[in-house]
Specification:
Helix 2 packs parallel to helix 3, helix 14 crosses helix 16 and helix 15 runs antiparallel to helix 19. The longest helix has 26 residues. 31% of the residues are buried. Helix content is 57%, strand content 12%. By secondary structure, the chain is an alpha/beta fold. Helix 3 links the parallel strand 3 and strand 4.
């Protein structure tokens, strides 16, 4: 394999050339160019397999180079280095079949994983010397054949019976022992948003599958690992063969390798990975085993970001409660003592986490308790919680709060900040009744009263009326009536009919309109018009 690095920044070219382990990638020659002109000359003179190019350069863009490369019908792949601002080029690059993007500054491990995938795909495309079309497809798609087989078993598309599985293995011509003993090792990657900003989900899966195969199975091409995305999380399932009679030894061995797995993953990705080693099962038990392990990872929050064994938690699945002193926490909210409030929450979580007994059920109940404390606190101030509930960021954090102690603390911390900010915003409006008056002027034609206005400002109707009257000296209903009469006078001055005016300014009863008008102006609307 031969690689060309193109970038106007000499330092970037040197770093890529000197830090990537080219030997492990079977790359024989690495060429460098500092502008498009130099790159084109090298590509014209030398057979290059992979081009690593910056997108934006002073003397021509990477897109221009890629377009020229395709026009020359050269056989190779492109890897672009880019910044967030450069994604305007994405559409053009995709049309020209760029292989992948990497963000600057790049991570050498991610770079190597990307190059390994590029080289593998490139070799597959070129390997067409088979005796039949089926042979060609099978050779190029061995990994896919195994991947589909494992997915079909894990999702129960293949019937979970030993005979059916044997038939499938034979029909797909797979080198798998249907009667063997195995352990399923399931890893869940949480919080992949930051990684997604840098690389695609497909590349994340590729990296993780290769790490799992290399560390757990000793061969990056073992094809006993499959990965997929579910609900914003990535799952990797490895099928590890176990020698009969050495079940306990296999567990200890996999546990040690899984610790290495976590270390390797942390070098490349920001996401948190939780791994569970399943008990020994046969292939027809895979579906049930996978469902059980996935449930254990979700339920046993104490193991978040670590490796554990199914047997270790089987006897410890009771969900412990977290007891909060609601009165004390409410008092801390009243004194705006967020630090002490959060300290109590963290202490409760740490105490419950001892012995790895903390579960998602316990965290779910804790979420409800904290919410109730906050809503009670706001309720006593007669502030409706609807505005807080509608906070989108708060909703996203709440959704993840039961996944780990860290996520719970993030949610509780944001909730308190949002509560204090929301309270401040509402209380500020108590002394500025202009907002209410503006609302009345904008909606006087509609069916409005203190209840509708209170709902608009997330306040209890009684409290809103009390505050408004204290500030203005009149009730909200009196303010609405006065606004409607003022608008009615304008329409009557223009010569409009009295009966029409009543409806136009929001009165659905002519008698009430006439009575209200006379009470405020001293004369009926009819006499006002004549006058």
């Amino acid at each position: 394999m031969r690689v060309l690095i193109v970038d106007d920044d000499i330092a970037t070219v040197d770093v890529i050339r000197d830090t990537v382990d080219w030997t492990s990638l079977d790359v024989d020659d690495v060429f460098t160019a500092y502008n498009i002109k130099e790159a084109k000359k090298i590509l014209s003179d030398e057979p290059i397999d992979i081009v690593i190019s910056d997108i934006e350069m002073p003397k021509g863009s990477g897109i221009e180079l890629l377009k020229w490369y395709r026009e020359q019908e050269l056989d190779g792949e492109f890897l672009f280095l880019t910044c967030h601002e450069s994604f305007d080029y994405a559409t053009s690059a995709m049309k020209l079949h760029v292989f992948e993007y990497l963000l600057k500054p790049f991570d050498v491990h991610v770079m190597e994983a990307t190059l390994r995938k590029m080289i593998g795909d490139l070799l597959d495309k070129r390997n067409i010397k088979e005796t039949s079309e089926l042979g060609k497809w099978a050779k190029k798609n061995t990994a896919r054949l195994y991947n589909n087989f494992w997915m079909d078993i894990l999702t129960s598309k293949i019937s979970p019976s030993a005979s059916d599985i044997e038939k499938e293995i034979a029909s797909r011509r797979l080198d798998v022992d249907p009667k063997g003993l195995y352990r399923l090792v399931v890893s869940r990657l949480s919080g992949i948003e930051k990684d997604r900003e840098m690389i695609s989900t497909s590349l994340i899966l590729f990296i993780l599958e290769n790490i799992h195969m290399e560390v757990l199975l000793g061969d990056p091409q073992a094809n006993f690992t499959t990965g997929f995305e579910v609900g914003g999380e990535v799952f990797i399932v490895s099928v590890v063969p176990v020698e009969e009679g050495k079940e306990e030894l296999s567990k200890r061995d996999i546990l040690e390798k899984s610790k290495v797995l976590l270390t390797q993953q942390k070098k490349i990705l920001f996401s948190e990975m939780t791994t569970c080693i399943g008990r020994c099962v046969q292939m027809h038990e895979f579906y049930d085993a996978y469902q059980t392990i996935k449930g254990l990872i979700q339920k046993n929050v104490s193991y978040f970001g670590t490796t554990f064994c199914e047997e270790d938690v089987a006897q410890n699945r009771s969900s412990l409660g977290i007891n909060l002193d609601s009165a004390k926490l409410e008092a801390l909210l009243s004194s705006n003592n967020k630090m002490e409030f959060m300290s109590i929450i963290k202490t409760c979580l740490n105490e419950t986490s001892k012995g790895n007994a903390l579960t998602d059920d316990a965290l779910n109940r804790l979420v409800k308790e904290i919410q109730q404390i906050v809503y009670t606190y706001l309720g006593k101030k007669q502030i409706g919680a609807i505005g807080l509930i509608e906070d989108e960021n708060l909703g996203k954090l709440e959704k993840n709060a039961t996944k780990s102690v860290i996520d719970m603390i993030k949610w509780a911390n944001y909730l308190l900040d949002a509560t204090f900010e929301y309270e401040k915003k509402i209380l500020k409006s108590f002394t500025i009744c202009d907002k209410i008056n503006t609302y009345i002027r904008q909606h006087y034609k509609e069916h409005i009263g203190r209840n509708e206005i209170a709902e608009e400002f997330f306040l209890a109707p009684e409290y809103l009326s009390k505050v408004y009257k204290k500030e203005t000296g009149i009730s909200i209903n009196e303010a609405i009536a006065a606004c409607r009469v003022e608008q009615a006078k304008l329409l009557l001055d223009r010569g409009e009919r009295v009966s029409d005016v009543a409806e136009k300014v929001g009165f659905d009863n002519f008698t009430y309109f006439s009575t209200t008008f006379k009470k405020i102006e001293g004369v009926s609307p009819t006499k006002y018009k004549k006058k």
